[in-house]
Design goal:
The complex is a heterodimer of chains A (501) and B (306). Chain A has 501 residues and is α/β, with parallel strands linked by helices. Chain A contains 18 helices and 22 strands. In chain A, strand 14 and strand 15 form a beta hairpin. The longest helix of chain B has 27 residues. Chain B is mainly α and 306 residues long. Classes of the chains: A alpha/beta (501), B mainly alpha (306).
Chain lengths: 501, 306
Amino acid sequence: MNPTPLVVLEGIGKRFGAVTACQGVNLAIWPGRIKAVLGENGAGKSTLMGILAGQYQPDEGQVLVNGVPVRFRSTREAIAAGIGMVYQHFTLVPAMTVAENLALGQEGGPWFSPSAMARRVSTQAEALGFAIDPDARVADLSMGERQRVEILKVLSRGCQLLILDEPTAVLTPAETQTLFAALRRLAAAGVAVVFISHKLNEVLAVADEVAVLRRGRVVDECPVAATTSPAELARRMVGRDDFLAVDRVPLEPRQVVLRMAGVWGGGLHGVDLTVRQGEIIAVVGVAGNGQRPLVDVICGLRAPERGTVTILGQGWAEFHRTAPWQGGIGYIPEDRLGVAVCRELDAVDNFLLTTRQGFCRFGVLQRQRARQQVVELMATFRVHPPQPQLAARQFSGGNLQKLVLGREFFRRPRLVVADQPTQGLDVAATHDVWQALLAARTVAGVLLVTGEVSEALALADRLVVLYRGRVVAAFAADDEVEVARIGLYMAGAAAQEGAGS
Amino acid sequence: MSWEWFLPIVAAAVQAGTPIFYATVGEILMERAGILNLGVEGAMLLGALAGFWTSMVTGNPWVGLAAAAAVGSLACLLHGVVTTVALANQVVSGLALTILATGLANFLGTPLIGLPAPGFDQRPLPGLSALPILGPVLFHQDVLVYASYLLPVLVSVGLRRTRFGLRLRAAGESPTACRAAGLSVLRLRLLACLFGGALIGIGGAYLSLAFTHLWTNGMTAGRGWIAVALVIFAFWRPGRAMVGAYLFGGVMAFQLRLQAAGTTVPSSLLLMLPYLLTVAVLAASSRFRGVAGAPAALGTNPEPSE
């Protein structure tokens, strides 16, 4: 093994405005080894790797390549220094062939020979164990194949360090295994690989070393073989001791605000569900197992085909025909910019989208009064920047989500439906959203749909597991036996007796 | 009586189709790089005027042709700068170019109406012109027609077999990928305007230097618009553009013959034929192929992060 690291990061710090993305990061990357950078959304992984790949310049510290300090002003300079990155969003031309895509950024004479390029690509791909047809159009390739083309693209420019940003997010399990095999072959050939992920099992499966990033700092760095346990790694990643311990004082459940009995439609298969005021029910499961139709049915976006839905004591059709703007349902959609708000409207207009009935006199909107209300909400929910005239798209994900929460809670809902409310949010924003949901329990029942089991366990009183449109398990959050089996339920194993809540 | 009466009509179709063919290939070059240019009609007209005036003043139609290419390039570069540097809407900028250029050409050209200028005459190619059928149709033409026969091969090879062509197509398909490869979308698109504009200018000059040897106001008479439509008909391929251009040339030549033969159909109706065909062809090709083959980033301006 090479005695010197290929790339060293020394005391790297980077701020975006008031937000510190990373701080005092030291990291050594060795040739022939796969390093996983593990961390939650917003932990600073992507920023750190963006600095390595020449996307950003660090505010503090320095990057050394083969012991020489460097400062990249563009991704092109980073590539010239042998550092290439495969982004989550691919940068290929779909209408062109694989060979043409690979030739695009390369230097050379004025002529381009598709057949010669195809031969070169084939040789290169075979050496890596990639099965790629160089004459195939990229548009016809699967996501996994496109990713392989991206990797080839980086390597064909002579990169010695390959960075992959959440590479498995778009892959099927089988494609993930192919990718891992390829990464191991690359490492065996002496390439340094950095693998960004927030999935523990993947890191343990493929990496030689792991660096755990939390709130922009490296909190742990060790060989994977020396990792005491996945649970310990998880604890370090999310920092449960100082962060996940939100104060959840259980409240006495009161009247039922939502009752679903044998509901079918849009992929739901006889779902039973009850939500009472004072409790949070978490719906967990792998995405696409019925979460979307469940939320759509409750919020009135889709009619149930069979079964009964009772909302605040009224039938589904009756409730949604006359849904009150206050004291009804507060809906926090998963698609923030697409469903929750209008991108180009300002904060006040977006606020009025669901609250306009409260700001209407003789058919005229009282925009000034709404504006004062938004300013107040911005202070209460700590929205930054607190400027109501900004368009929705100008707020960061976390701040926009807090605006949506503020708007929906202003309607004093008695049933809150929160669909993936912390997806893509940083740690601080996640914390604020959690606090808001817990506070909502005093007046409402909360249905929390989430893909993060840790979130469900932190907030919910009861958990419901969805699998292929069915409730396969329902249990209290403090039932340790059942909680230990969540993974099995989510994978569809062992439907529980008498499922339903 | 045999089919031989038909050959002069086909020969006339090739001649009438040639200016449209040049303009269509020019537009294809620009659109392949992502620039939708609705200013073809205007750029053609300016090319026709510049070619005619320069040829008249210098007495050399080749100098006139060069001037037409240069003016066509400049006109399209104006559109390119407005859309890629100032990021203006491509549709609006193209329409504005046509309006501006039409007005300018008619203003500058009015004193030239009726004046003579040297141009290109039909010169049968030795050897080839003796071929049966093909000889009288393809090789009893002028030098600009002969040159246009090479266009599909040259442009196809240029787009597919050169590094520059590869990059130019990438600029029209995915500016993001282009930039990730370290290329300048701006530079590629402006170069496409330069080359495409030259061809469009030559297409215009064909009207005033070869098709006729005269200048008349508005002499392009919608041929630029037909070229824009033909690009879609041709699925952005120069070879198919040749077929399309001759088809339109054929309709134009045919209606002229009908008028000459003294038909009772009003001439205004006959004059409409090429444009009716444009509408029909567009509807048919969209019906059967959709917009397949259109460059993915056509008409869009990349984010100004360069």
